[in-house]
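**Fold in tokens:**
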Amino acid sequence: MKSQKNKISLFSATALSATSMVGSGWLFSAQLNAKIAGNYSFLSWILAALFVMSIGLCLSQVVSIYPVRGATTRSSALSHNEIFGMPFAFANWFGVMTVIATEAQATTQYLASAINNTTLIDTNGLTMYGKLFAFMLLLVYLIVNFYGVKLLARVNNTITILKIFTPLFTITLLLIAKFDTTNFTLATNHIYGMSSAITAIVSAGLIYSYNGFQISVSYASEIKNPKVNVPLSIILSISIVMAMYLLLQLSFMGAIPKSALMHGWSQLNFSSPLINLAMLLGLNIVAILLIADSTISPSGTGFAYLGASSRMFYAMAKSKQMPKWTINKLHPIYNFDRRSLLINWGLAVIILYNSSHWASLMVVVTGYHIIGYMAAPISMGALKPKTKIFGFIVFILCGLIITTLPHHDLYMMNISLSLLMVVFGIIQIKNGLTINTFLKLTMPFILYLWIIYFYNSPIPIGIISAIFYHYITSNNYVQFCKQHNSQHDIDEDHISLCETSTH
């Protein structure tokens, strides 16, 4: 019973995910979505929510069997083995870890643009002073995480209230101040359609905005009754945030002055969208609140992702996908690995130093997220064969959404994952694994990603995705993976949880 006192409730788990979904995305995505999808923006938010919810439900099925620390990155290692799961784990962890830097960057960029401060940002992006300011934010993220999930939950619960209040307050005042229904009947609206809505899911940052849904999965071993509370927290958090984003999109598009829409939604170009709009409408109190929130919202997401990424990294090391020296024993009081936390924080600092704009990282991060998501339906189908039809549909959707990524970004992601697997393969072969076995474990997925790159067409990709999913979740292939599984210790998290559940 003692261990249960250190676990977090359904409310806290839902708040963690909801907070992570109200980060920098809500400050930028309403404008990007309107530019790309016009009136189809609302459909984009709904489709994106249904997509990430389906991924979350797949993960919750895995967690119902293995409620372990960092289950998001670890699912394919649990269902197949750690070598097969390496590309998924790396993509998921790298995407989440990069978000930490992206959120600090977004805070600095939005704040500097709002107050017209050229000391922090110029035409080339963040200045050195801007990066120093962002580094200070990263330091705050580190301090909040350093004393365990209970402190994180307390801080996060408070910030969640502020983060939910600010968008709702903004939405309300925008609707009261100005709502022009003719904005939704522009002559240029005919250029948008279903394809625009699907493109916006990635390009407008909607998946990026929703990605926090998986945070509660990363904390599965630290949540009370995870078999029930993890899927509930996913459904509740996504539903709450989707409703908020739909209202935000409606109020934003209805409040845009006609002078800004002379050439349609595609030409809308505010540097700090919500603040610029509030100032145009004379809503100074909203502008002030948004300036404050541009620090609070991304920061709340940033420190939640720092905690999640450190747990993912710990899970990868436990699955022998990262060197053992990168992790230490779990802290006896705070129940997490501080060495993993420090490594992830240091990597976030490096990424922040080498980047300048929020938008330049957002699409790439989204691409890694989607590749990481693909492990969820695969793992669920392998562990629970009765769920294969659902997993089959979700996996095909992942493949089709990947085709909407910019071609160059998909190329760079494929190159990075291919090079990673070459290095990882050399290490595994030196440790005694045969080349033939390594190729059978890793090449199917890498080849699948390259096929998507070269044959970027929905119907062929849908067919190839279906064939690949059937093969990769077949009993023969899963058993082959398990025969070459060097992971003998599932995790002390799972053991301790089972022991606790007997009391």
